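Same chain as my last thread, 298 residues:
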Amino acid sequence: MSKLPSPLLDLPGAVAGEGADATVAAHYGSFNVEQRALTSGSGFVDLSNRDVFRISGPDRLTYLHSMTTQYFDGLQPGLLTKALILSPQGHLEHEFVGVDDGDSFLAHTEPGAAQALIGFLDSMKFMMRVEFAVEDLAVCWRPTGGGGYDVFERDRLAAYAEAAGPAAGRWAFDALRIARGEPRFGVDTDHRSIPNELGLIPQAVHLDKGCYRGQETVARIHTLGRPPRRLTMLHLDGSANRLPAPGSAIEAAGRSVGQMGSSARHYELGPIGLALIKRNIPVDASLMVDGLAATQEV
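reply #2:
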């Protein structure tokens, strides 16, 4: 489902993002001020470009429990839950976060990702009493209470902004997310990514549940403690007025050792980013990415 530009792009100072984030604001004039507001627990971030979908039916939690990495059996209403769907080899294929209200599970995922996700789930349900539908709803993130999401009708965005302001853009949101070491699916991950190397255990992977696709890989690597790569925060050279492109090769001593993910300018740390780097690369190794020097912080 294609998304219309957010009405919050009409707010003073709003500058639209790029690519998948083109329909929401990258910032509203000062991403440093916006980061400080979010850090202090005020404001919100417009993520209304995210895909929203609903899973309903009496077997929905049993089905999600069997298909995902998360423990859905007996899930209590109102509990925010993050889950992954893996390939048989344990690689990330889909991710989503949502809340069950006792009647249905309302979830959201990256822009443009919902159709493929629910298409897969629908193709595998067989005799289970479960239904899937994409919803035209808006998502906003707020820092209060440790961070959470509000999902509501899109025509309420302007009223929500007036009540919940000040508004912060995607740049501020990403800077704080990177500093926390939280990967963005499809930007900080690739077709080879496994949960163990991304720090997604235990928040998105429950280790004490029954069989699901990819479980053998996750359990084996968790036991051995040796994922092939590690998600690493990079401190980037700030003398150049640019950030590395996602997907850029990371080099050490002239050889490729990893792949760049998302990057941003943090109000205290300066230019930072997330990268997947080979496990055997020393933490103190000098790195280069897209012509910029970088150091690691695991």
